[in-house]
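Exercise 7b. C-alpha cells:
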C-alpha cells in the first residue's frame, strides 16, 4: 500500500526513456546553468534541523499511537458521543497523520534530491540510505491507522463525512477503501514495510548507482550514459553509430547485473502480488493509478492497432528522407538530413517556454517563472548526476523541484517544458494537502504533455522555411511516438517479463527476445534492429523503479491530444477548467476530472481521437513532400 506516510518512499521516477529529438549542434556551453537551492528544506546534510525534525516526528508519532492505535473503531462508533463529535475525532486524527506525512516527506525529498544531483557521492548515498531506514522505522508505527480505518464498516465512516470538520478528506477516506481487499494483517504489513529497505528500495538504489557510474567509450573518450545517449541523436551519422555501439557494448558487458536485478524485482513483485491477492501482473499498478484494467486494455489495444498507421508509416517516410529502405535503429531519432542544427541557450529556452505558457494563461507563466527565479531547477549535466529528467513534488508545505540534463538540444527545450508542466501541476495540487495532492500517474502526465504541446505550437508558428517546419513536425511526431507507441511497447515488454518470470528465472537471452519482439512490432519494417539493440531494455529506469509505470505516458499523451482539441475548438473558459483539473491533485477520479471537457476514457473512441492527432501531424509531413 502506498498512502500517506508510506507514500513518502515513492521517489520521483525519471521522465526520459531514451534520448530523442534533435541533437546539440556542437560543444554546448553549460556555464551559467542553474542548480537547486535547498534553503527551503535544509542547509546541508549536517543541518541540525534534520535531527530536530526527526525528533519532532518521533514524538508526534508516539503521541499519535497512544491516542489512536487499537482504539479507532471504539472512538468512531461509540454511542457515548454524537456523530459530530465522532467526525471531529476523525478529523483530528487525519490532520495529525497528514502533518507527520508532510514533515517526514520534506526530509526524504531532500535526501533524494541531493542523491539525484550526484548519485556516485558516498556521503549522499549514505545519507539517503540512513534517511530511508529511519523513515521506514517511523512509518511502520503509523501503519495501523489506514488498516484500522478500513476495518470499520464503510457506512459508519460515510455517515461522518457529512460534517464540515472532515468533509475535505472524504475523497481520501473513500480512496483508501479501494485498498481494503488487498490489505494484510498488521504484522505482515509491518514486515513488508520494514523489509522494503533491504528489498525493492535497495535494488533500485543499486541500479541508480551502477548506471551513474557506468562509462561508455566513444573514440577513446569515456562518458556517462546521458552523454552517449545525446550522441545517438547527433547530426553526424558515423557518430550516431559509434555511440549506439558503445551503449550496446557497456550494457552487454553488464548484462548479468541487469538480468539479475530484473529477475529479483519481478520475483519480489510476484511475491507481494500473491500475498495481497492481485490476479494480474499489472493489477497493483492499475489500483495505484485509480484506473480500471478495462481502460488500460482499451488504450493498449487502440495503440497496438494503430502501429501501422502511425509508427510504421512515419518511419517509412523517414527512411525515404534518408534515402534508404530501412533506418538503422540509431537513426530512428536522428535529426533530418540537410537541416542546420543549432544550440538553444538556456535563456532562449526560458523565453520560449514562458512565452508559450503566457499565451495560454498568465497564471501558468507566473508559476513557471518561480522555478527559474528561485533555484527550483537543476539543469547542468555532470558526471554522476542521475540521467534523464524529472519533477519532484516534495511536500505541500514546500515546492516542487525540476531536474534536467540540459545540453542545448531542441528536444531539451521540450523536455524542460514537459517537466515544468509537471511542476505547475504539483504546485497547484499542493492546496489539497499531503494526503490528496499526489496525482495518479495516469493524470500526472496531463500538465507535462500539455506544456509540451503549448511550447511546440508556439515554436512552430515562428518557423520561416519548409525545411524548418518539416524538422519541427518530424521531431514532434517522434516525441509523440516515443511517448505513445514506445511506451505501450514497453508495457507489452513488461507484461511478457513478469508473466514469464512466474515460471522461473529469466535469462539475458529471453529478455532480449522479448525486447526484440515488441520493438519489431511497434517500430515496423522500416527500422532495422541492428546487432546490439537487444540489450537496450536494460537501461530503462522505469522497469526498475515503477513496474508498469510506462502506460501512463501514453494515457497522458492521448488525453492531452483530446484536451488540446477541445481547447482549439472552445478556448473560452478552457484555462479555468484546466486549472481546476490540476488543482484537484489526487482528490478526484479521472472520470470526474474529464467530465467538464466532455471526455470519457472508458470509451475506446477517446483513445482513437488522441491517436488521430498524431496521424494528422504525419499527414502534414506527407503534404510537405515535394515542397
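Sequence design result:
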Amino acid at each position: 500500500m502506498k498512502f500517506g506516510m508510506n507514500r513518502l518512499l515513492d521517489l520521483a521516477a525519471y521522465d526520459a526513456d531514451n534520448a530523442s529529438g534533435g541533437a546539440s549542434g556542437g560543444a554546448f556551453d553549460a556555464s551559467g546553468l542553474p542548480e537547486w537551492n535547498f534553503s527551503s528544506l535544509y542547509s546541508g546534510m549536517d543541518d541540525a534541523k534534520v535531527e530536530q525534525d526527526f525528533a519532532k516526528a518521533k514524538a508526534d508519532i508516539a503521541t499519535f499511537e497512544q491516542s489512536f492505535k487499537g482504539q479507532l473503531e471504539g472512538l468512531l462508533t461509540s454511542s457515548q458521543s454524537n456523530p459530530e463529535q465522532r467526525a471531529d475525532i476523525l478529523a483530528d486524527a487525519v490532520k495529525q497523520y497528514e502533518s507527520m506525512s508532510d514533515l517526514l516527506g520534506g526530509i526524504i525529498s531532500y535526501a533524494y534530491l541531493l542523491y539525484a544531483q550526484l548519485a556516485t557521492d558516498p556521503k549522499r548515498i549514505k545519507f539517503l540510505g540512513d534517511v530511508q531506514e529511519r523513515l521506514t522505522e517511523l512509518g511502520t508505527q503509523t501503519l495501523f491507522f489506514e488498516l484500522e480505518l478500513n476495518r470499520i464498516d464503510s457506512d459508519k465512516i460515510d455517515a461522518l463525512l457529512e460534517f464540515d470538520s472532515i468533509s475535505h478528506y472524504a475523497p481520501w477516506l473513500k480512496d483508501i477503501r479501494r485498498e481494503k481487499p488487498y490489505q494484510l494483517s498488521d504484522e505482515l504489513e509491518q514486515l513488508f514495510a520494514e523489509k522494503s529497505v533491504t528489498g525493492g528500495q535497495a535494488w533500485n538504489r543499486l541500479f541508480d548507482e551502477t548506471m551513474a557510474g557506468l562509462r561508455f567509450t566513444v573514440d577513446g573518450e569515456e562518458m556517462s550514459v546521458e552523454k552517449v545517449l545525446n550522441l545517438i541523436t547527433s547530426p553526424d551519422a558515423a557518430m550516431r553509430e559509434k555511440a549506439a555501439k558503445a551503449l550496446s557494448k557497456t550494457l552487454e558487458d553488464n548484462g548479468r547485473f541487469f538480468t539479475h536485478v530484473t529477475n529479483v524485482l519481478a520475483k519480489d513483485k510476484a511475491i507481494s502480488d500473491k500475498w495481497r491477492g492481485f490476479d494480474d501482473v499489472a493489477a497493483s499498478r492499475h489500483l495505484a493509478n485509480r484506473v480500471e484494467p478495462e481502460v488500460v486494455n482499451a488504450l493498449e489495444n487502440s495503440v497496438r492497432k494503430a502501429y501501422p498507421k502511425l509508427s510504421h508509416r512515419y518511419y517509412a517516410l523517414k527512411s525515404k528522407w534518408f534515402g534508404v529502405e530501412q533506418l538503422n535503429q540509431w537513426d530512428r531519432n536522428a535529426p533530418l538530413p540537410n537541416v542546420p542544427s543549432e544550440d538553444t541557450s538556456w535563456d532562449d529556452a526560458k523565453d520560449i517556454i514562458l512565452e508559450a505558457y503566457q499565451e495560454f494563461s498568465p497564471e501558468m507563466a507566473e508559476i513557471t517563472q518561480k522555478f527559474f527565479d528561485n533555484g527550483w531547477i537543476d539543469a547542468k549535466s555532470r558526471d554522476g548526476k542521475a540521467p534523464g529528467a524529472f519533477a519532484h513534488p516534495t511536500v505541500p508545505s514546500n515546492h516542487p523541484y525540476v531536474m534536467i540534463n540540459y545540453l542545448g538540444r531542441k528536444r531539451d527545450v521540450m523536455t524542460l517544458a514537459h517537466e515544468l508542466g509537471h511542476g505547475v501541476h504539483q504546485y497547484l495540487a499542493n492546496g489539497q494537502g499531503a494526503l490528496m495532492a499526489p496525482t495518479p500517474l495516469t493524470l500526472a502526465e496531463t500538465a507535462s504533455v500539455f506544456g509540451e504541446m503549448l511550447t511546440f505550437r508556439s515554436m512552430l508558428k515562428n518557423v520561416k522555411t519548409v525545411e524548418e517546419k518539416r524538422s519541427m513536425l518530424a521531431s514532434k511526431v517522434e516525441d509523440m511516438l516515443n511517448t505513445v507507441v514506445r511506451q505501450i511497447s514497453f508495457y507489452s515488454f513488461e507484461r511478457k517479463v513478469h508473466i514469464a518470470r512466474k515460471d522461473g528465472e529469466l535469462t539475458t537471452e529471453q529478455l532480449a527476445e522479448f525486447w526484440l519482439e515488441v520493438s519489431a512490432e511497434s517500430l515496423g519494417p522500416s527500422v532495422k534492429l541492428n546487432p546490439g539493440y537487444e540489450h537496450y531494455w536494460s537501461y530503462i529506469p522505469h522497469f526498475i523503479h515503477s513496474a508498469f509505470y510506462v502506460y501512463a505516458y501514453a494515457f497522458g499523451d492521448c488525453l492531452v491530444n483530446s484536451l488540446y482539441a477541445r481547447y482549439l475548438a472552445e478556448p473560452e473558459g478552457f484555462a479555468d477548467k484546466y486549472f481546476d483539473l490540476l488543482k484537484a491533485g489526487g482528490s478526484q477520479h479521472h472520470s470526474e476530472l474529464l467530465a467538464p471537457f466532455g471526455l470519457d476514457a472508458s470509451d475506446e473512441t477517446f483513445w482513437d481521437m488522441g491517436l488521430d492527432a498524431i496521424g494528422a501531424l504525419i499527414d502534414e509531413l506527407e503534404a510537405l513532400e515535394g515542397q
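Instructor comment: The first helix runs from residue 48 to 68. The two ends are 56 Å apart (CA to CA).
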